[in-house]
Amino acid sequence: MELFKGLAKSTRMHLIGGTHIIEEEGRFYNTAFLFYPDGRVGEQREIHITPSEVKEWNMGAGDDLHVFDTEKGRIAILVCYDMEIPEIVLMAKARGADVIFCPSCTDDRHGFHRVRYSCHARTIENQVYVVVTGTVGSLPTVDFMRGNFGQAAVLTPNDAPFPPRGILAEGEVNQIW
Q1: Who wins on pLDDT, 147 or 120?
Q2: Under a CB-based contact definition with an 8 Å cutoff, are residues 113 and 83 in contact?
Q3: What is the rounded CA–CA span in Å between residue 158 and residue 42?
Q4: Measured between alpha carbons, how far is 30 from 8 in angstroms, rounded to an integer?
Q5: Is residue 112 within 8 Å of 151, Cβ to Cβ?
Q6: In which element (H, E) is residue 56 found?
């Protein structure tokens, strides 16, 4: 937390530092944090939890959708599986989100494509930008982190004047830089 607070302040940028597992009252939550340049920290917990997150990791579901105001616009952060649920994205758009950020952790190509295609669908359905990021690399000693598949992208609706494929920018598959 201190690292990202310091980076947001020193760069004078808003930062979303992926997601982190936090514990509260014996339950774990997959949580994304928005670090503001002025030191404030916003928080969004994953609302829809996969069966394996519950069974293997004892994850709890978040119970509230937050929309954050920034100098550049109103944003929402929807964690991984939340982007596969059309209604939650519709709610974020109804609350004024112009851009949806989706940090995700997918351990194979199937999961990656499921999240990525869902993000594309949400851009079309809601006429919003979606910025999707994922984990890459491996943590050999951690279950579900032994191999990850990811690619960052800025996705747009597939309408004029946006790019024909609905991709404004994308990184290299499984590459950090």
Answers
A1: 120
A2: no
A3: 30
A4: 21
A5: yes
A6: helix 51-57
Spatial separation of the C-alpha atoms in residues 135 and 69, rounded to whole Å: 26
Q: What strands, in cross-sheet order, belong to the sheet with 41-45?
A: 15-24, 27-35, 41-45
Q: 36-89, pLDDT tens digit by residue?
A: 999 999 999 999 998 888 888 889 999 999 999 999 999 999 999 999 999 999
**Helix-strand-coil split of the chain, %, nearest 5:** 30, 30, 40
pTM for the structure as a whole: 0.91
Length of the chain counted residue by residue: 177
Both tokens of residue 86?
Answer: 């059309």
User: Mean of the pLDDT values across residues 137-143?
Assistant: 72
Map 85-119 to HEC letters.
Answer: CHHHHHHHHHCCCCEEEEEECCCCHHHHHHHHHHH
CB within 8 Å of 74: residues ≥ 6 apart: 67, 68, 95, 96, 97, 98
